[in-house]
Amino acid sequence: MTTQTFDLPDLGEGLTEAEVVRWLVDVGDTVAVDQPVVEVETAKSIVEVPSPFAGTVSVLHGEEGQVLEVGRPLISVADGSEAEPGTSAGAGTAAPVSAEERYREEERAGSGSGNVLIGYGTPEAQGSGRRRRPRNRPPAHPARPDMPGNGAPAPAAARPPLVTSPLVRQMAREGGLRISEVPGSGPGGLITRRDVRAAIEAARSPAESAAEPSAEGTPAASAPTTDSAPAPAGAVDARTGLAESQRVPMSGFRRSVAASLSRSRREIPEATVWVDVDATELVRLRRSHPSGPGLLSYVARFVLAGLRAYPELNGLVDSERGELVQYDGVNLGLAVQSDRGLVAPAVMGAHRLTTLELDTEIRRVTAAAREGRVSSAEMTGGTFTLNNYGSLRVDGSAAIINHPQVAILGLGRIMDRPWIVDGELTARKITQLSFAFDHRVCDGGAAAGFMRVVADAMEDPAAAIARL
């Protein structure tokens, strides 16, 4: 009987670990190629990982709640067949896949693709509805000593080095390297993450890099440690004198959120302005078209109009180069409260959508975020954030800007309040907008101008829509 062990694959975006949320199979279950076998939580989202093997589950390498590092065993599957002669094995198990297939796992992962980060199997299995990334296959023959990446420079007529994923290119770019100058250790000169790490270390300290293990050696010392035991609950806190009721380790997602919010507070000199808005006409418009776009979709449409008038609010600050960057287009982020915490997925290319299309995408993205199924690109690609904290029955908020963005608009709950209209006191539907902005990109005049574009459109939506 041949047992094949599948390691936790590269999940993209520089992620090095994942927490086992829920096993979808048990020992003894029969699995098919491409069948999801486990849900894991990363710092970005919850991901279903499919099996590249068919057979009977023999070992689950991890308990629910346990954090596993990328490259560690995840699941072992016995296929009931005899091992083929010449098959390499370790610790009584056959090599799970060929060397070339293992190297291609990074490309399948790409930079994060949402529900399923990697795909395996036959074309029939790949057409089963889960999303896949296109692959540029390396040559079918094994690496030879004269190939690039084995110490000898590639001949002039050789094709460019093979790069397995956008993650590898990003690592090289952030390390100040030209990807074409990195020697690849994979088949046919395939460039892997370990190759880039080794090149970066060599550039930083040639003396230290000479003492480092080879690309097949131990991982870098900077890899996160997950074996440290948390302090036991029940200990008495020295500051308060109270017993601790519990200690809960922060998940990778929580650590990522905490780091982003802390960086925002540390780096961005933000200011916040408010305005009360009479949304009576907007509510009336929504009620007159019950099957039409929701209120948030109209507000999103007006936000896009405001960003078109004040494009400096749709960008970032490049501190290293001393430049203010503006984007040609808007990926509209939406703050969503989920069981995992607050997330801000984006409607990609929101500026190209009609109000009805915005409504559809807002509903899809927010639902996916609550389920932990939003893609990595949607999770990290926002350029401006709209925060509907009114859905939590909150009137106002001084929100934290979602770094590296430069502004966030908050919408409070809409409620009946006494209001003066044409000199008469009457009940109106009033809400509050709060706007936090990076004072490095604009002054109060631009912030107030943006707020008035949105507020005026909400107070007279028919006239605003006619102008859009």
Estimated helix fraction: 25-40%
CATH topology of the largest domain: Chloramphenicol Acetyltransferase
What is the arithmetic mean of pLDDT? Answer: 76
Number of domains: 3
Rg over C-alpha atoms, rounded to the nearest angstrom: 26 Å
Terminal residue distance: 67 Å
Largest sheet: 7 strands, mixed
Number of helices: 13
Describe this structure in words.
By secondary structure, the chain is of the alpha+beta class. It folds into 3 domains: 3-126, RNA polymerase II/Efflux pump adaptor protein, barrel-sandwich hybrid domain (OB fold (Dihydrolipoamide Acetyltransferase, E2P)); 139-222, no CATH class; 253-467, Chloramphenicol acetyltransferase-like domain (Chloramphenicol Acetyltransferase, 2-Layer Sandwich), CATH 3.30.559. 27% of the residues lie in helices and 22% in strands. It has helices spanning 99-103, 105-109, 123-126, 166-174, 193-204, 206-211, 252-267, 280-288, 295-309, 355-370, 376-380, 444-459, 461-467; strands at residues 3-7, 17-23, 30-31, 36-41, 46-50, 55-60, 67-69, 73-78, 89-90, 93-94, 270-278, 315-318, 323-326, 332-334, 336-338, 341-343, 346-347, 384-387, 407-411, 415-421, 424-438. Strands 11, 14, 17, 18, 19, 20 and 21 form a 7-stranded mixed beta sheet that branches. A 4-stranded antiparallel beta sheet has the order 1-8-6-3, with no helix packed on it. A hairpin with a 2-residue loop joins strand 20 and strand 21. Helix 9 crosses helix 10 and helix 12 crosses helix 13 (461-467). The longest helix is centred in the middle third of the chain and has 16 residues, at 252-267. The protein is globular and about 85 Å long. The N and C termini lie far apart (67 Å). Residues 83-164 and 206-229 have low confidence and may be disordered.
